[in-house]
From TrEMBL:
It comes from Candidatus Paracaedimonas acanthamoebae. The keyword Transcription regulation does not apply. This is NB-ARC domain-containing protein. PANTHER family: NB-ARC AND TPR DOMAIN PROTEIN, ZU5 DOMAIN-CONTAINING PROTEIN. Pfam families: NB-ARC. Residues 51-198 form the NB-ARC domain. SUPFAM superfamilies: HCP-like, P-loop containing nucleoside triphosphate hydrolases.
Length: 715
């Protein structure tokens, strides 16, 4: 398979595939039984795609935008080679990782295998923006809620005017910068047709209900669900119930609805009234199902696994023998719909319409909402805990939990709720987002919000404060290395006050992973070695092969910087042995092989070093697709060093000039990175070999200036 197809695969909502006429489809559902009408809107999209390649379906929430986008992809599946869909309000990282796993298993050749642990939102976006627009395939990409993600917005200009590359997005905003198709209420004939899918009434009675509910599809669907459950109900009886409920909601106007737009107010109160009636019916029919539904409303609505429903039932003390009936009633009422994009039917995934989620939460008293939020925080804290290794493993094994915890924290923040341990959960999420998932949009924001909350008097223990300081240190690294070091040292000092094993693991990670890296950027190897020495007794206490691997590798790097290359090689081999004996996944530890390549170069083993560096670089580019990466820059300098001593000056010059350019981009023009000094030294030596002494002298002076800025007394 070509890399172009690989990129086609990488950027989309991940969960499973179904085979249609297209060569490859991903996360595209089968036909929707309850889809009705919209012929004019479907025709408009097809017409616009003849001259433009980006279309937005805009309209009120729940009006049918997503259903129409899915129907378009289903009806036109034979017209595209590849069809992909991304849910932009979901956990994009989780979608990408799940897809990567599927791609590795089903499609990738050995050379195209994607190391799972390196699939991040940032690198996947780079792949999408670099490769898909240039592909020879005819592609359709569906972006659900495409205006909700800043990262996704950046791809729209990439696709503009590209031949055979089409984006169909949904948006509640009218401000999207592309051709728009406005999705409004159904016409009367289609409203009647939708109701006929649920109830067998004469058309005049269906017309009466359609008029009553404003031809809004979600309201009509819920009315159909209720009337189907109560077959003796008459149109007049339903109208009486609806108008009474709507009148009650209007009396709570400020609570239910903060919109000033009259159409939006009318729409929400109509839909919420129909939902309130079905909620009441569910309460009478199956109270356990209703309680479970209210709990599920506080999680991410698009990725509710059956296991999550079981866990929810367990929280509520519901007998597991009642679970099948509970799920049946929720699905039969269309509160949950089965995600038909999933290939593995053994694992059922359900979705809740966001408007149902909002209506449920707004129907609950504040005290009940707080109780549910508190129970979920307690539940997640009991599972999502431990040292850095445990947190990373948890979100790797249960990426859906990360989505749910994000949704829960955002909801608590929106309510300004004072939920016990919610700040600690936010700090844990920030830590894993920054260090493990590269989800910087949320990780950085959560860390700063947690810092601000503590400054305002919110009380958390020293462990949480220490973890937060370590996270903030990493966030500030590229803008202020000294501040990053100071924050990390303060974090370690706080963690030392909490002598339990989890606190020791957090200290250990900071001492072997964070501080040495920060000090080496400064060129201060003495302090880096001191941090490693301090880590040794903690390393033995924690006794985790992952930490041993990091420790030996980082220690090897520090000795290499001091010129102790033989000892460094011995330690790097110990690190590689830790990977093998601990049966650790190799991709996350690519940095160990990168270090070995540099050590070999410094030992004069240029052929072996160049071979290993080239292999590492190829592996890195499969997962990174960007030369502006710290590891990529380091490899380029290592390769340049090898070419220098092999006297292949042309290749050396090319590698090192690329490294300098990309390093400057990486640090936003700063010249306070140790790596930059090394690159300019190598470039100076290349010019000296070429007898261009003025350029050589210039590069040596640049290197000297960089080292002086980093630390005048660097060792």
């Amino acid at each position: 398979m070509q890399l172009t197809l690989f990129i086609l695969l990488i950027f989309i909502s991940l969960t499973s595939q179904a085979s249609y006429g297209a060569e490859f489809t991903y996360h595209i559902p089968t036909g929707n039984t309850f889809f009705q009408g919209r012929k004019e809107e479907l025709s408009k999209v097809s017409s616009i795609f003849k001259s433009e390649n980006i279309v937005a379906l805009v309209g009120l929430p729940g009006i049918g935008k997503s259903a129409l986008a899915q129907e378009f992809s289903w009806k036109n599946k034979d017209k595209y080679n590849v069809i992909l869909k991304l849910e932009c309000t979901g956990d994009i990282r989780a979608q990408l990782i799940n897809f990567g796993r599927s791609w590795n298993q089903r499609c990738a050749t050995p050379l195209e295998k994607i190391p799972e642990n390196y699939l991040t939102l940032d690198t996947s976006l780079q792949i999408l923006k670099s490769w898909i627009p240039e592909s020879s395939k005819k592609n359709l990409i569906i972006l659900e809620d495409g205006d909700k993600s800043q990262e996704i917005k950046s791809i729209l200009t990439t696709f503009k005017d590209k031949k055979d590359k089409f984006i169909l997005m949904t948006s509640r905003s009218l401000n999207v910068e592309c051709r728009k198709v406005h999705i409004e209420k159904l016409n009367r004939q289609d409203s009647i047709g939708l109701l006929e899918k649920f109830i067998e009434w004469p058309k005049d009675k269906l017309d009466k209900i359609s008029s009553l509910l404003g031809d809004y599809p979600l309201a009509l669907t819920q009315a159909g669900v209720l009337i189907r459950a109560l077959p003796s109900m008459t149109p007049d009886e339903y109208q009486k119930l609806f108008e009474k409920k709507r009148s009650y909601l209007e009396s709570l106007h400020q609570k239910v609805n903060k919109d000033t737009d009259e159409e939006s107010i009318n729409y929400k109160e109509t839909v919420f009234a129909t939902l309130a009636l079905t909620f009441e019916d569910l309460k009478k029919k199956n109270l356990n199902a209703y309680k479970a539904l209210t709990f599920l409303a506080f999680l991410h609505p698009n990725h509710i696994k059956e296991d999550t429903i079981k866990e929810c039932a367990g929280l509520l003390g519901i007998n597991k023998d009642l679970l099948h009936e509970l799920i049946y009633d929720l699905v039969n009422s269309l509160y949950l719909t089965v995600d038909t994009t999933r290939e593995n039917n053994a694992v059922s995934i359900y979705k809740m319409h966001p408007l149902i989620q909002v209506a449920l939460k707004e129907s609950l008293p504040e005290g009940t909402k707080s109780e549910i939020q508190a129970l979920w925080v307690k539940y997640f804290r009991s599972h999502f805990s431990g040292g850095p290794h445990e947190l990373e493993k948890f979100v790797s094994d249960r990426s859906d939990y990360y989505e749910h915890m994000k949704t829960l924290i955002e909801d608590i923040d929106a309510d300004h709720a004072n939920i016990q341990n919610s700040l600690e959960l936010k700090i844990d999420l920030a830590r894993v987002a920054v260090f493990s998932l590269a989800d910087f949009e949320f990780g950085d924001r959560w860390a700063y919000e947690a810092e601000e909350a503590i400054k305002k008097g919110k009380n958390v223990n020293n462990f949480a404060k220490g973890r937060l300081h370590n996270t903030l240190g990493n966030i500030t690294l590229l803008t202020d290395v000294n501040k990053a070091i100071d924050l990390t040292l303060k974090g370690i000092a706080l963690l030392e006050k909490e002598p339990h094993k989890i606190s020791k693991a957090e200290q250990l990670f900071a001492l072997i992973n964070n501080l040495p890296d920060y000090y080496s950027i400064q060129g201060n190897i003495t302090h880096a070695l001191e941090a490693l020495k301090k880590a040794e007794p903690i390393l033995r206490d924690v006794n985790n092969p992952s930490y041993y691997c990091i420790f030996f590798s980082v220690y090897a790097n520090m000795l290499m910087f001091q010129g102790q290359n033989e000892k460094a090689l011995s330690l790097i081999n110990k690190s590689l042995k830790s990977i093998q004996e601990g049966r650790l996944p190799e991709p996350p530890y690519l940095f160990v092989k990168i270090s070995k390549a540099e050590i070999l170069a410094r030992l004069g083993n240029f052929e072996e070093s160049l071979k290993l560096a080239t292999i590492c670089y190829d592996e890195l580019m499969k997962i990174c697709n960007s030369d502006c990466d710290y590891k990529a820059v380091r490899l380029k300098i290592t390769m340049a060093t090898n070419y220098l001593f092999k006297n292949d000056l042309a290749k050396g010059l090319k590698c090192v000039t690329q490294a300098i350019e990309h390093c400057n981009k990486l640090v936003n023009g700063s010249d306070k990175i140790f790596l930059q000094g090394w690159a300019h030294l190598v470039l100076g030596e290349i010019y000296e070999r070429k007898k261009d002494l003025s350029k050589a002298w210039r590069e040596y002076r640049i290197a000297e200036r960089i080292y002086d800025k980093i630390n005048p007394n660097c060792v």
